[in-house]
Design goal:
two-stranded antiparallel ribbon; 7-stranded parallel beta sheet; binds iron/sulfur cluster; single chain; TIM Barrel; 309 residues; 17% strand; alpha/beta
Length: 309
């Protein structure tokens, strides 16, 4: 069978590392930044409880104590990754990174882009936090820099979004994608495989929908039950069961087959959170999950985009 170009990466999908090597001709690394944002789904603007799987730290990055400045965080990250990368993308990761007045956003993003070898931004946010002022700001940056906006969707099914307390619906995601399209801002959608109550068909429907939208990348997460979250409680009292590794691997392989071959795969499983991790146990071995997904595609003699229509 004809081999798509991305097979050069020895994987059967187009990962972010390969995409950036193609684009910049060198290794590029994301540097995670916690810029001190909050989230409207936690601070009472939309809700206070947050998504049922959210541990309240916004990501594994948030630590206790005073937050170092954006530039200090970048300098620290560069020291760590220097042997492996020569350019960097500043990744505003923790909580909702467009949830502030636009002048504050500009100052934080400018600080990141002023650092040597930082070629762009990747900004994690929610679909209900990208108003016209934020879109104008990002499209200005996109004229001179490489800009990704990561939009949390998790599922296209409103019933699921309600159940997991996302605080937004699918239409708001579609509205955000439409407003951001054609502005040279690269969009990355986040989805979760294994959300309570979702059938395999519903999970694949979310992937099929993303496949036909103007979206450039995807992060696929496994659902993690963490201590101190509502989901963790549901897991402990037996009202939900976690997905098996085989099932997860098979569903992710199905999703990769459905997505277009040029969609950048930014993530294929969730990891981290070791201090508060409950289940599923297989999710702690990220490398094993990634290898298993690639092996499953090999076993099927398949690859990303094979079923894309
Ligand atoms: S949107 Fe993100 S930060 Fe906000 S509650 Fe949900 S998971 Fe937590």
């Amino acid at each position: 069978m004809p081999k798509p170009d991305f097979w050069k990466n020895n994987k059967r999908y187009y990962d972010l590392k390969s995409y950036w090597r193609n684009l910049f001709g060198c290794n590029v690394h994301k540097l995670q930044i916690d810029a001190g944002f909050t989230c409207p789904n936690r601070d009472g603007h939309i809700a206070t409880g947050g998504c049922i799987y959210c541990d309240g730290r916004g990501s594994k990055l948030r630590q206790k104590g005073e937050l170092p400045s954006v530039s200090r965080q970048i300098q620290g990250g560069k020291k760590f990754y220097k042997p492996h990368a020569s350019k960097y993308v500043a990744y505003f990761q923790t909580f909702t990174n467009t949830y502030a007045p636009v002048e504050k956003l500009r100052s934080l993003y400018d600080e990141a882009l002023a650092q040597d070898d930082v070629v762009g931004l990747s900004i994690g946010t929610r679909p209900d936090c990208v108003g016209p002022d934020v879109i104008n700001l990002l499209s200005d940056y996109a004229k001179n820099y490489h800009v990704w906006l990561e939009l949390g969707l998790q599922s296209m099914h409103d019933e699921t979004l309600k159940l997991i307390n996302r605080g937004h619906n699918f239409q708001q995601f579609l509205d955000a994608v439409e407003a951001l399209a054609g502005k040279n801002i690269h969009l990355c959608a986040h989805i979760i495989v294994g959300l309570p109550g979702e059938t395999d068909e519903e999970i694949l429907q979310t992937a099929k929908t993303i496949a036909v939208l103007p979206i450039n990348g995807i992060k696929i997460h496994s659902l993690l039950a963490l201590e101190g979250t509502d989901l963790g409680e549901m897991y402990k009292n037996g009202s939900i069961k976690s997905m098996s590794k085989d099932k997860y691997v098979s569903l992710v392989a199905n999703i990769l087959e459905i997505l277009p071959a040029d969609m950048v795969i930014q993530r294929l499983t969730a990891d981290g959170y070791r201090d508060i991790f409950l289940a599923p146990d297989w999710a702690m071995n990220k490398l094993d999950v990634l290898n298993s997904i690639n092996k499953e595609l090999e076993r099927r003699d398949s690859y990303q985009g094979k079923q894309y229509k």
